[in-house]
Design goal:
Elements (H helix, E strand, L loop, with lengths): L4 H5 L5 H9 L5 H13 L3 H6 L5 E2 L6 E5 L2 E2 L2 E2 L6 E5 L1 H19 L26 H14 L8 H13 L4 H8 L17 H8 L29
Antiparallel strand pairs: 1-2, 2-5, 3-4
Length: 234
Amino acid sequence: VDKDPCMRLNAFFTAEEAGRLIHDPSILPDRRVAYVLAFLTGMRLGEIAGLRWCNVDLDMQPLGAIDVVETYDGRPTKTRTARKVPIVPQLGEILEAWFASGFERIFGRPPTPDDLVVPRPPYGRGPAGTSHSKNSLGKAFTKDLARLGLRHRRFHDARRTFISLALSSGAQRDVVERVTHTSRPRPSAFDAYITFDWPVVCREISKLVLPNPFAATNATSDEATVEPAGRGGP
């Protein structure tokens, strides 16, 4: 039972709030990568925590792709089914920078295909390089909301925000649904005949672009200064 159903109905982020969370240099860079994945793909927290570089194709055309797989480290995802999510240009720039230099700045070496995209950092709790728990990443998100003076919402609300903002940006509803949900709760026979070419999926999801209030100060996904534990990392 939802403790506060009224809050859930309004638990979305504005585009400006989402833009701050993924670009503000006061937030640690690895966290911003997790947040941009949530806000620009609609991936669930567990899917982001388990995502590895081998499931990220930055070279696919017309846009790169993330393969959301059925299981992560032997643990099934919520729906136990796979789907493909486009890497829109805004997300692609951040992931490319994170892969090229940001990851190495924190972990002391370049990422390998088997590495998690956003593993636990060396300045937080838990073994560095291992998968975040829902609790650790959720707590980090709560702390960063407070750091920016934003009201409390759940990490999952970033997924809901992606759906809402994509639709309001003009993305086709059925395409957004296929990117975020492998099937309807009650699919009809008609659903089995609905398919979308990859270029169509890329075109529709690319309609969502989040503002970057720090563009003039050259803030990118891996430029924040990494501080040791004591910063409050998970």
